[in-house]
Amino acid sequence: MGAWGPGLFSDDTACDVRDEYREMLEDGLDDDEATQRMLGSYADTLDDPDEATSVWLALAVTQSKLGRLDPRVRERALAAIDSGADLARWSDNPRLSAKRRDVLNKARAQLTGPQPQRKKVRRPSRHVTDLQPGDVLSYRAANGNLTLLRVARIDDDRHSVAPVLVALDYTGTRLPPQPELDTLADKPETPFRLDGTPLPPWASASWRVATFKRIDYDTAGFERVGPTTARPGDKDFRTPTYTSWQLLPRELERNLTDAPATAEP
User: Fold this and answer.
1) Alpha-carbon distance 140 to 151, whole Å?
2) Using one digit for the tens of pLDDT, what is the confidence trace for 146-200?
């Protein structure tokens, strides 16, 4: 079970159920069809006693919060609580078991109490970047050092169309001429250390960058300075680091303050 705590949604399965159900409603499915699709999708999980409670509770509580509680789901969720099987999973840790009992009691109160009015569920706004693969962005830190980031590809998902950036192996005070951009290698990432010491400069050298609160690359201090050629593997490149245009400058400021500059001709 992918649970990391006693909270109702401190559980991979519960989070997936909540998110998938909401997405179905955002896509325009009616209440009954969304419920039936969820139950069909999680049919195998519902046969697993250790996971079934997570599905029934997550679905019932999510429906309740949206004013769409299905009576059948409600009854199955209450039965899952009453069976005691869920608490049995926490029996080896009395402290967590007590917290989980409180979670289940609150869920029961929500499911058996007055239900809120039915809420509309709209698909969230989806920002689409105007950057293109091959674009190069520059960022100048407060100390005058400059770094360059190239757009390796554009990642298109449900919530946004966002650039995946890779730092070029360059730090200087001037912008290199256009022909030089194609000769710059990607900056290698410094492996993470697990000993609790501060991260070294360029612990991350690639990012998927989202627009948040309408702050895009230009308003965050980045400038589009030119194109560069595609690199092998760009179309399938994946980065483990997700950030926003607000947060990326903070990381670059630290990198450009602590890291030595590239020799300039």
Assistant:
1) 17
2) 999 999 999 998 888 999 999 999 988 999 998 899 999 999 877 666 666 777 7
Domain total of the chain? 2
Q: What is the extent of the structural domain holding 252?
A: 127-257
**Nearest Cα to Cα of residue 210 among 163, 148, 149:** 163
259 band by pLDDT with thresholds 50, 70 and 90: low
- The residue out of 49, 82, 112 marking a domain boundary is 112
Which pLDDT does position 185 carry in this prediction?
95
Q: Looking at the domain assignment, is residue 150 inside a domain?
A: yes
β strands within the chain, DSSP E? 127-128, 135-140, 146-156, 160-172, 206-210, 222-227, 242-244
Q: Are residues 136 and 246 in the same domain?
A: yes
